[in-house]
């Protein structure tokens, strides 16, 4: 075992594992002290669903992240953390070609033949392949759902600071009445035996609760909603995802099951667009009249990040029998979610959006020109269902 001050050198770059396994407490505090002592250390952060307790951002020369929202909203808004607008499928290349971390601080579990990550694989393998030494935080309760390749023992240095396990991530209460209506509309679009990708939160939970047919889960984050599918006998095979985040029941269920894979696998466009038809269900902060989507910010206030939405939406749109869906209530905090122009950059382009669903309507945009799309979306927010001309991708009339 060793300490981080033996690994963190002046001017080096440290990648800090993300997701529910985000190192916190003693490991984060130790890294902060080591970085302050070394000087000039750069820090790379991923998706932080919970505050990285013990991590002092001022100890680093610069901090960059690929997810502006969740626990990093305030540091990004204040300028303490720089947000890189990269979709998840490009992050492995970003790490190998640009970030090039020297050290990766990540939770690990010892298994026969080597080490495994715990409840996330995401971009961690790419960091190792970029040359990072794994500063492994051993888990006091060793549980793993890691499906990726074993870590080379020669690349792992076990820290003398352990951790209690993945954080409990609270995805909020049940869906609202409006979200439940949206979820019912979306569930009707999923074919028998298809694959689903869904964003966590109220709309995603409502969608899963409304499903009445078995599905495969191929998504960005395995949440407790998957347990609901399993209990109802509607889960086919093992879920595939780069992250797993929820509570103890989910972590116990996942332990020993190869569920979390590297982004190179989960977000590969060829894999996603082949196999059982993929219905990608995502939500938005705003959508404009052309069908362009904003999931990152409201004005100058960061909320989330690009994430994997454009990866899944593009793959579903190109897949035979697939469907890319934006599902959202027509109003948020009293304001329409349909806008003339987005308040920030486009997260997902309009040409990767097949269907838009609100509590009022299900609008199929496929086969429509720009003027027809604008008219269809305007009618949907007025509470009218706008018929789309011509056959759908499956040859049926819409």
From TrEMBL:
GO molecular function: acetate CoA-transferase activity; hydrolase activity
Keyword Hydrolase appears in the UniProt entry: yes
Keywords: Hydrolase
Spans annotated as Disordered: 378-398
A Pfam family this chain is assigned to: AcetylCoA_hyd_C
InterPro entries per record: AcetylCoA_hyd_C, AcetylCoA_hyd_C_sf, ActCoA_hydro, NagB/RpiA_transferase-like
Record GO biological process: acetate metabolic process
Boundaries of every Acetyl-CoA hydrolase/transferase C-terminal domain copy: 246-377
Keyword Zinc: no
PANTHER family per record: ACETYL-COA HYDROLASE, ACETYL-COA HYDROLASE-RELATED
Protein name: Acetyl-CoA hydrolase
Species per Swiss-Prot/TrEMBL record: Peterkaempfera bronchialis
């Amino acid at each position: 075992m060793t300490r981080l001050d033996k690994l963190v050198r002046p001017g080096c770059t440290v990648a800090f594992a993300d997701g529910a396994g985000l190192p916190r407490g003693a490991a984060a505090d130790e890294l902060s002290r080591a970085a302050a002592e070394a000087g000039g250390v750069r820090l790379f952060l991923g998706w932080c669903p919970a505050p990285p307790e013990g991590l002092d951002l001022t100890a680093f020369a610069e901090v960059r992240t690929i997810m502006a929202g969740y626990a990093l909203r305030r540091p990004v808004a204040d300028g303490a953390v720089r947000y890189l607008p990269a979709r998840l499928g490009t992050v492995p290349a970003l790490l190998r070609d640009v970030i090039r971390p020297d050290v990766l601080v990540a939770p690990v579990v010892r298994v026969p033949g080597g080490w495994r990550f715990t409840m996330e694989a995401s971009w961690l393998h790419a960091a190792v392949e970029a040359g990072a030494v794994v500063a492994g935080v051993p888990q006091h309760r060793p549980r793993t759902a890691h499906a990726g390749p074993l870590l080379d023992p020669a690349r792992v240095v076990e820290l003398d600071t352990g951790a209690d396990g993945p954080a409990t991530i609270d995805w909020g209460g049940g869906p609202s009445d409006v979200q439940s209506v949206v979820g019912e509309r979306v569930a009707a679009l999923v074919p028998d035996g298809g694959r689903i990708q869904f964003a966590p939160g109220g709309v995603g939970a409502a969608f899963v609760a409304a499903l009445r047919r078995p599905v495969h889960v191929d998504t960005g984050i395995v949440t407790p909603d998957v347990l609901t599918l399993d209990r109802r006998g509607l889960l086919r095979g093992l879920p595939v995802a780069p992250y797993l985040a929820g509570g103890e029941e989910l972590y116990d269920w996942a332990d020993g099951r190869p569920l979390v894979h590297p982004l190179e696998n989960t977000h590969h466009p060829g894999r996603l667009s082949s196999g059982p038809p993929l219905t990608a269900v995502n939500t938005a902060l705003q959508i404009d009249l052309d069908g362009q989507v904003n999931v990152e910010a409201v004005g100058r206030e960061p909320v989330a990040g690009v994430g994997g939405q454009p990866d899944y939406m593009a793959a579903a749109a190109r897949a035979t029998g697939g469907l890319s869906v934006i599902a959202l209530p027509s109003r948020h905090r009293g304001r329409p979610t349909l806008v003339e122009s987005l308040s920030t950059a486009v997260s997902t382009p309009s040409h990767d959006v097949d269907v838009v669903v609100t509590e009022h309507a299900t609008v199929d945009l496929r086969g429509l020109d720009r003027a027809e799309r604008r008219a269809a979306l305007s009618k949907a927010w007025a509470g009218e269902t706008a018929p789309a001309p011509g056959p759908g991708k499956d040859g049926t009339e819409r």
